[in-house]
Each structure stands twice: as structure tokens, then as C-alpha cells.
Amino acid sequence: MNRKVLNEKTIKDFQIKILSWYKINKRDFPWRKTTDPYFILVSEVMLQQTQAKRVVPYYEKFVKKFPTINDLADAKNSEVLLVWSGLGFNNRAIRLKEIAKTIQLNNGAAFPEKIDELLALKGIGNYTAAAIAAFAFNKKTVVIDTNIRRVLIHELHLSENISQKLLSEIALSVIPNGKSRIWHNALMDYGAMAATARLTNIKSKSKQSTFKGSEREVRGKILKLLLDEKKLTKAKLAELFLHENLEEIIRKMKTDGLVEERRGLITIIN
DNA sequence: ATCCGGATCC
DNA sequence: GGATCAGGAT
Questions:
Q1: How far apart are CA A246 and CA A252, in angstroms?
Q2: Pairing of the two strands A259-262 and A265-268
Q3: Quick one: which of A27, A182, A188, A255 has the fewest CB in 10 Å?
């Protein structure tokens, strides 16, 4: 059933190439100085679709303000959004807080270790669940982000159209025993610094529509304004933003749990 | 298949 | 200016 795709020598050479490169070139990030699953969770959610370098100051502010999962669970949404402000994809912040609340409620703040339990939390998908398993618990799990996918395709000469299933089998077959944590950090650094998207010409899987002039941009501005002003009437927003779809934009922000409306007053949910 | 921020790199 | 960025939910 599972035919072996790579021979032993190919695997060994690949491991040595990546790990020796990493020894010399590795990046130093604050979330690599800990194996506490709560801190790993915070970093991984922040890192979703966001350059690692840019996450660093946000991560440090965040864990200083919310040092434990209970601190985050008990925080107000507006406090969390304020620390998050500028990082983008703001519903990640709300989801992260909800995850903290769920863990606090269900497990008495005992952090779930099984992939299935992690996947059940809204805001944690395949990548983030695997990343927590690898970086917090050093589990031999298939971790594939945009960097690792590109490195595997480039270094092992795979097709860009390779199926998720086959890529996962290959990714699993090359993890050195007992070194899941360091291995996946090494692959990511190699992808981010050596086998970059530009150099390899391998296209990214996730694409985004133009941000400038988008409704997403308006959303961001509205939220930032609310963080300053605390509350605004819908009429005032209409006056400030003059957007034909303002109603729809606000509706989505409500659906995402960012804001609520009472008697024509828009506020951040607390 | 689309939507969700905003900065950073060329 | 455009592509990319440690993705996820619907």
C-alpha cells in the first residue's frame, strides 16, 4: 500500500543538508526559548499568514500582558485587540482568547496534547495543531506550512501539484527520530532564508485579493477607531467612511465577534 | 472559492 | 506596484 517514495540515502542526505545548514544559519525567536504550549499557541496563531520577524514585538507584548492561559481567558476582548492592533486578521485575536476560555473551562487550564483535541478548537487548523504538537511536545507529526511545503518540493524535486496526501507521507518519512522540534524549525528557516519563494519560483498556495481600497481595509480602520473612541454611532461611521457596503462590513464584524450594536451604537464586544 | 490585515520584500 | 507572508473558517 505505502510504497516508499524516497530511498534511505536520499532521506539521510536531505536531513544532513538541512540540519547542518540550520546549525550555522538558524534564526533566533523568543518562542523558540520555550516549550510551554500556551506560549507556542500564542506564537502560532500570530504567525498565521504573517512574517515571523514582524510577529516578534507583538508576541513579547502579548505574553507580558497575558502571562498565563488564565490571564488571557479572563481578559476583555478590547484589551486583547489593543495588544493585537496592527498585526492584522483581527478575528485571530478573538479566537485565541476563546481558545483560552475553552481550555480553562474544559480542562481546568490543562493544555490538550492530542491533535484531535487541538483541532476541535476554532482557530486551530491542521497546521497549527501539528505545530503545537511538534514545538511544545516534540511529537513526530507532519508539520507543513508554506515554507516547509516549498522546501520539500524544491529539495526533493517534487511536483508543485503534488497531492496533500503524498506530500504528507513524504514529510513524515524524512523526520529524524526524536528531533521533530528542531527539524521543523530547521525546515522553516531554510525555506524562509535559503529556498525562498522568489528564488525557487514555487508559487504559494494561499492567495489574497488586493488590500488597498478593499472592504478589509475599511474594517481595519473601523476597528482601530473603535479601540480609540470606545464607541461610535452607525451614523458617524457612515459619515466617516462613505462606503456603499458599510452595513455589510459591520454585519461581518458582528459575525466575527468583533463588535456589537445596541441602539445604533457600535462597540467592541467585551 | 472567498473572505479575513497590514507590513515587507523586491 | 505586485507577490508573499509558520492559515483557518465558511
A1: 10
A2: antiparallel
A3: A255
Q: Residues A138-197: pLDDT tens digits? A: 999 999 999 999 999 999 999 999 999 999 999 999 999 999 999 999 999 999 999 999
From the CA of A191 to the C1' of B6: give the distance in Å.
22
Residue A69 CB closer than 7 angstroms to strand C? no
Q: What is the CATH number of domain A8-28+140-200?
A: 1.10.1670.10
**pLDDT tens sequence across A234-266:** 999 999 988 889 999 999 999 999 999 999 899
What fold does the segment set A36-137 form as a domain? Endonuclease III; domain 1 (1.10.340)
DSSP string, A106-159: HHTTPPP-SHHHHHTSTT--HHHHHHHHHHHH--------HHHHHHHHHHTT--
Catalytic residue flag (residue A260) = no
Handedness of CA A254, A259, A262, A265 (dihedral sign): negative
What architecture does CATH give domain A215-268?
Orthogonal Bundle (1.10)
Strand B contacted by A210 CB (< 7 A)? no
- Position A230 scores a pLDDT of 80
Q: What's the CA–C1' distance between A34 and B5, in Å?
A: 28
Q: Which residue's CA shows the smallest distance to C1' of B8? A: A51
Instruction: Catalytic residue, from A44, A247, A260, A261: name it.
Output: A44
What is the tens place of the pLDDT at every residue in A217-234? 999 999 999 999 888 999
Query: What is the C-alpha to C-alpha distance for residues A261 and A270, in angstroms, rounded to an integer?
Result: 12
